[in-house]
Amino acid sequence: MNPRWNGQFSCFDLVAKTDRCTRTIVRVGDIEIGGNDFVVMAGPCAVESETQLLATAEAVGRAGARILRGGAYKPRSSPYSFQGLGVEGLKILRKAREETGLAIVTEVMSEEDVAVIAEYADIMQVGTRSMENFALLEALGQCGRPVLLKRGMTATLEEFLRSAQVIALAGNPNIILCERGIRTFETATRNTLDIAAVPVLKTVSHLPVIVDPSHAAGVRSLVPVLSRAAVVVGADGLLVEVHPNPERALSDGDQSLTFAEFRRMMTDLEPYLDLQREPHELRPQLLVVGGAD
Ligand code: PEP
Ligand code: MN
After folding, report:
1. How far is the CA of 251 from the centre of ligand 2 (A)?
2. Contact yes or no for 222/189 (Cβ under 8 A)
């Protein structure tokens, strides 16, 4: 029987944790997401230029990120905002991978773009606005790349897992779930980080779960503390926005860290990561395990 959460919902079968399948490790080259490592993906919201992306790639790689993020196709809240560089952006991402060895995660907005983006990306990102674009999810079932599925900003966890099931059913079991904040009545932050989503998802599903503190917070000052929270609740990694000059960023500058802030955050995370690496019996009781039956 699939794990049920507290009588609320049952996890969809292909993504449910079972005795036979307790965790999925998504492999990208020698990177394992959902294994024992905590994997940080970092980079600008949008690829703006070669100079901007290469400088960011080098800085985040040196600070310990394993995967470079950067949107070439941008779903913007306004039709008048920068929409991304498209294929030119993908070429810049490829160059950054060649120069730094970082893997690439970038967003795909339409099923028509799946083939071209899969040529350049190591991980295909589905944004919050696309979580229920079922034509896109089905196309990603056959794309041959892992999928980073962001939670819809108004989606319940059951709906989130349903979208993961759609991708799995279409043939792709390599799915990374990403909690990125949800819409609530609170306006002090851009979204409300649903930190409980991490242990709930990890209890009912075998899929890796990462946290995007940048879009959750909307302001850079909260990103380091939310990242620590993600480590402590047992997330498998982070997706963080970093920009060489956030004041001049073409998108999401307010929530983007500078290189120095990112370096500092990575250093400050170390003791929390060490705590997670302790043998389980020495750890404080951090993960909720009793909610599912
Ligand atoms: C992003 O990662 O830049 C992005 C657009 O995120 P979200 O879909 O979570 O808003
Ligand atoms: Mn962004």
Report:
1. 6
2. yes
What angle is formed at CA 52 by the lines to CA 48 and CA 56, rounded to 5 degrees? 120
From CA 244, how far away is CA 104, in angstroms rounded? 18
Which residue, by CA, sits nearest to atom 1 of ligand 1? 45
CB 114 within 8 A of CB 139: yes
180 lines ligand 1 (CB under 6 A): yes
At position 54, the amino acid (one-letter code) is: L
Ligand nearest to the CA of 210: 1
User: Cα–Cα distances in Å, from 127 out to 18, 22, 37, 221, 242?
Assistant: 28, 26, 24, 23, 18
- Tell me which CATH code domain 27-277 carries: 3.20.20.70
Residue 149 near residue 177 (C-beta atoms within 8 A): yes
Site to probe by mutation for ligand 1, drawn from 45, 126, 150, 243 as the one with most ligand atoms within 8 Å of Cβ, is 150
CA distances to 29, 122, 159, 283 from 26, in Å: 10, 11, 22, 25
CA atoms within 13 A of residue 96's CA, in its CB half-sphere: 37
Give the C-alpha separation, 133 to 126, whole Å: 9
Q: Each residue of 234-287: pLDDT tens digit?
A: 999 999 999 999 999 999 999 999 999 999 999 999 999 998 877 666 665 555
Tell me the pLDDT tens digit for each residue of 7-27.
999 999 999 999 999 999 999
Task: Give me the residue label for tokens 């690496």.
Answer: 277
Burial of 291 (0-12, 13-18, 19+ CB in 10 A): middle
